[in-house]
Amino acid sequence: GIAGLIARRRLEAAYELLTRHPQLTVADVAERCGYGDAGTLRSRFRRAYDLSPSQLREVHFAAALEDAQQR
Fold this sequence. Notes:
Layout: H1 2-20, H2 26-32, H3 38-49, H4 53-70
Helix pairs in contact: 2-3
């Protein structure tokens, strides 16, 4: 239903912010995406992506660094 679509879009927005704006804290991302606190974002994010927001950043930025080093 509509609630599921909204929840999915909020998670997608959080994913984008986490990978495109490393200067934002997880709490900042949670606030910008409408979550009450960082803990709520962390639990819902982990459930959806099987990674915590911090783990996503580690994987994403490690891959970006590796790509840059190969060029």
